[in-house]
Structures are given as structure tokens and as C-alpha cells.
């Protein structure tokens, strides 16, 4: 039996359909990301699972049981919000203990579980510190410990890393995945960050205007997107007019060829190439980012920084790629 099932889950706000018949099956211990732009319905989906928003129709079943019929506080879910929602007048340990107190867990067990949760997130030494004396990353860890200490059947994360700076967000992604694997919690993450979803997830659910565009493993969605929206949302891509390309650069009968920038290489020329002029190049450390003006349109190229000479702006170049690498 599947662990968690969303069956044609729908939410309407008046005439607006925020989530349209979303169906998803989640296995126990899986890490799933609901990914998409603002307004796509991902947060509303999470809120229906948590019970904060009432579903218009459809079902949510947890191990075969109707979760929508259960009061939110009794669903056994751990939730981490974007704002962390910590109590400012409570210490880290008191914040983490709050959910256990509400469940009337005995004091001795509560103490042990709080200590264990703070150790898990690397904050054992910060048990007596108040939120205002903690960094954003530390507050995020407290919120995560508070969600995990109740030993939830499902962990729901609503943009939990969005308030952190880029370097700390990357570090926390690694920590979050390690913690999730350690505790084995079935996890649903809401995010608009493609890199975050692909780094953390077993599968991604790409959403657009309330609809599911694709459900797949991250690398599969990136390499074989199910729609133009997915191709454009999961990283950069080039959409090139087939009629301006050499036959050897095309595949199938589509009027356009979509190719990722990192799949394109510079070549000396030949029968299977696309000529152009470098109009812009940007050094980004481990790679160069190019824009090349061609007969097929403006082409973005990513070239790894191998230390070899790189084409200059204004230089005429020739581009090639394996036609099987289209997306």
C-alpha cells in the first residue's frame, strides 16, 4: 500500500482554481519537492495536506486512511514555515519542547527527546539561547528540530531556506538532506528554487498555474522535460528555429530545437555546426557564460573553465552539439 496518496486534490477560491486535480503517490521515506513559480499552487497543496486550508474536492490518504477527516493537530505532521515561527520569549530548547508539551509527553522523556533533536541539528550548545540571539541559520535549525522532535509521519517544509543568504542556503541544503536521511522522515518541500529542488529531492513535482506539468526524478525532468514550461523553468535552455540549422544538428520533426547551454561546444567548423559571433561573455569562476548571435537566434553557451584560451567578444565562432541532447 502507498504511504501517502493525493487523489485529484483540488482547491478553488471562488472562480480561481488554485490546485486542479493534483494526483501524487509518495512512498515512505521519500523526499518530494513541489516546485514552481509563485502562484502555481504548491503552497496551497501543502496547506491542504497540513489541514490549514480546506480542500474543495479530492482526497489525501495516509496509509489508506482519510487524512482530510482528521483535525490538523491530530495528523501527526511536522511543519517548518518560511518565517520559522519561533516563540521569541522561549529558548531554543523550550521552542523545541513546545509540541511535546502540547502532546502531554512526560518531562523526563521530553528532556531526552529535545536534547536528541538539538544534537541532530547541531545545536546542542545553544539549548538556552533565545531566537533573537541566534543567526538565521540557527533559527532555521531550531524550527527543524521542533518539527522533528514529535517524530512526525510526514515532514512538510514551506520554503524553509528562502530567508538565508546563498552560501548558507547551500550549506543547509546538504544538512537538511543528511538529517532527512538519518531520521527517514517522508518529506514534502515547497520551493521555487530549481537548484534546491534538484539537490534535495528523490522526485520533483513541477507545477504551473495549479496543474502538474511533470513528476520525475530531478535529472530526468532536467534532461527530458515533459513540456516547454519545464524545460524553461528547470535551468537555461536555447529554443532554436530548425530551419536555420544544419540537418545534422536536428532530431525529429519539431519546428524548434531546444538545447541546454552546457551541451553546446565550440568547434573549428565543418558540416554540422552553427556559425555566430560572440556578443557577450561573462566569467563565473568555474565556467564562462556566452551569448552568441547566430542565424537561429541568440544562443547561450556555458563553457567550463579548463584554463584554455576562451573566445573573445566580437570573435566569430562555430557551435555544435549532439542532436540527441535536445530537451
Annotate the secondary structure layout.
Blueprint: E1 4-13, E2 16-26, E3 31-35, H1 42-50, E4 57-62, E5 65-66, E6 77-80, H2 92-102, H3 107-120, H4 136-148, E7 154-158, H5 166-183, E8 186-191, H6 194-200, E9 203-208, E10 211-216, H7 218-223, H8 228-233, E11 238-241, E12 256-259, E13 265-267, E14 274-283, E15 287-294, E16 297-304, E17 316-320
Parallel strand pairs: 3-8, 3-9, 6-7, 7-8
Antiparallel strand pairs: 1-2, 1-4, 4-5, 9-10, 11-12, 13-17, 14-15, 14-17, 15-16
What does this structure look like?
The strands form four sheets. The protein has a six-stranded mixed sheet with strand order 6-7-8-3-9-10, sandwiched between helices. The longest helix is centred in the middle third of the chain and has 18 residues, at 166-183. Helix content is 26%, strand content 31%. α2 (92-102) runs parallel beside α4. It has two domains: 4-232, Rossmann fold, CATH 3.40.50; 238-325, OB fold (Dihydrolipoamide Acetyltransferase, E2P) (Beta Barrel). It starts with a strand and ends in a 7-residue tail after the last strand. The chain is an alpha+beta fold and 327 residues long. The protein has helices spanning 42-50, 92-102, 107-120, 136-148, 166-183, 194-200, 218-223, 228-233; strands spanning 4-13, 16-26, 31-35, 57-62, 65-66, 77-80, 154-158, 186-191, 203-208, 211-216, 238-241, 256-259, 265-267, 274-283, 287-294, 297-304, 316-320.
Amino acid at each position: 500500500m502507498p504511504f501517502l496518496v493525493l487523489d485529484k486534490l483540488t482547491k478553488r477560491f471562488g472562480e480561481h482554481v488554485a490546485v486542479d486535480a493534483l494526483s501524487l503517490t509518495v512512498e515512505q521515506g521519500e523526499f518530494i519537492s513541489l516546485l514552481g513559480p509563485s502562484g502555481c499552487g504548491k503552497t496551497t497543496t501543502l496547506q491542504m495536506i497540513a489541514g490549514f486550508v480546506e480542500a474543495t474536492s479530492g482526497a489525501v490518504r495516509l496509509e489508506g486512511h482519510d487524512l482530510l477527516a482528521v483535525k490538523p493537530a491530530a495528523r501527526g505532521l511536522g511543519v517548518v514555515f518560511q518565517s520559522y515561527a519561533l516563540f521569541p520569549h522561549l529558548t531554543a530548547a523550550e521552542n523545541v519542547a513546545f509540541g511535546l508539551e502540547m502532546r502531554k509527553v512526560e518531562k523526563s522523556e521530553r528532556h531526552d527527546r529535545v536534547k536528541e533533536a538539538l544534537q541532530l541539528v547541531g545545536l546542542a550548545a545553544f539549548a538556552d539561547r533565545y531566537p533573537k540571539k541566534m543567526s538565521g541559520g540557527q533559527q532555521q535549525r531550531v524550527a527543524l528540530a521542533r518539527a522533528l522532535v514529535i517524530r512526525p509521519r510526514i515532514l512538510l517544509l514551506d520554503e524553509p531556506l528562502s530567508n538565508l543568504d546563498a552560501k548558507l542556503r547551500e550549506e543547509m541544503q546538504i544538512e537538511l538532506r543528511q538529517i532527512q536521511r538519518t531520521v527517514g522522515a517522508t518529506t514534502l518541500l515547497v520551493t521555487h528554487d530549481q537548484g534546491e529542488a534538484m539537490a534535495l529531492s528523490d522526485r520533483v513535482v513541477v507545477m504551473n498555474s495549479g496543474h502538474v506539468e511533470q513528476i520525475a526524478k530531478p535529472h530526468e525532468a532536467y534532461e527530458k522535460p515533459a513540456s516547454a514550461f519545464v524545460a524553461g523553468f528547470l535551468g537555461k535552455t536555447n529554443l532554436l528555429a530548425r530551419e536555420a540549422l544544419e540537418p545534422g544538428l536536428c532530431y525529429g520533426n519539431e519546428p524548434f530545437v531546444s538545447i541546454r547551454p552546457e551541451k553546446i561546444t565550440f568547434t573549428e567548423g565543418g558540416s554540422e555546426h552553427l556559425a555566430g559571433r560572440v556578443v557577450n561573455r561573462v566569467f563565473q569562476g568555474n565556467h564562462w557564460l556566452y551569448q552568441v548571435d547566430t542565424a537561429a537566434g541568440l544562443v547561450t553557451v556555458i563553457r567550463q573553465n579548463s584554463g584554455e584560451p576562451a573566445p573573445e567578444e566580437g570573435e566569430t565562432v562555430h557551435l555544435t552539439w549532439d542532436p540527441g541532447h535536445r530537451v
